[in-house]
Write the structure tokens for this entry.
Amino acid sequence: MSHRFPIFIIAILLLSACQSGQGQKGAFSVAEEKGKINKKFINEASGIDASIINPGFLWTHNDSGGKAEIYLIDSLGQYVGKATLSGVKNRDWEEIAVAQHPDSTRAFVYVGEIGDNRGVYATKFIYRFAEPTINQKDELIITQFDTIAFVLEDGPRDTEAFFVDDATQNIYVFSKREPNINVYVLPYPQSTQSVQTANKIATLPLTQIVAADYRAASGELLIKNYESVYYWKKQTTESWDSLFTKTVTKLPYVPEPQGEAICFSFDGKGYYTLTEEAKGEKPALLFYKRN
């Protein structure tokens, strides 16, 4: 489970960081609550992404101490079904991504066992498996999956966000707690037999990054902390390290009690955020429509 960073510290850090770009101001509307999550066992949502195999639906999961399960919900936050990873524990799952493989029609789900509040776990894990089709009330068991074990080149630290570049299948991981967070890359093909090193490619003047999502069809990247959503637009031939030198744009965001999940909708018509249960309130699925 993650802890909020003091708001006044975030404000000071962001004032001294990059200023918001102008290109996407007004491109998205203010938040609209689509619905409350209707299952009590989805109470610490720490990741969300749009399904590819089940268009119009979303995958989510709980973080530390939850079961090794991912849940499919609809666009109103209503539970559809779940898939369980066999023989795996959820020590601190913090992120989920769904990516299309460029050489096939298959899509893959990536689940990140990457949280580390105290920075004491040297090795992190990402589980990758073919995205399943889920029908109402399905409870699938996933037995075929890859385990990608890795360390960060500059040592153990907390991470809660990553995304997958569909074109290359590279995985990009964000650190969380530094005043200026780092971005690391795990190049494809990632080893599933040995522990590999994620190398740092950029440092960003942002902090407390808890979620990310990349929409390959439009080259758009979202990342968020507890107070803001940040946006970049990537050109087809542009490298990621070059993109991260550009001024970031802030998008509309209503701070949530423990908001640690963000993703674009499958059709790109907006983005969702999802919070954990807090103060007796059920987690709410919010949608920011593209204008």
Remarks:
- The chain has one domain: 7-290.
- The mean pLDDT is 91.
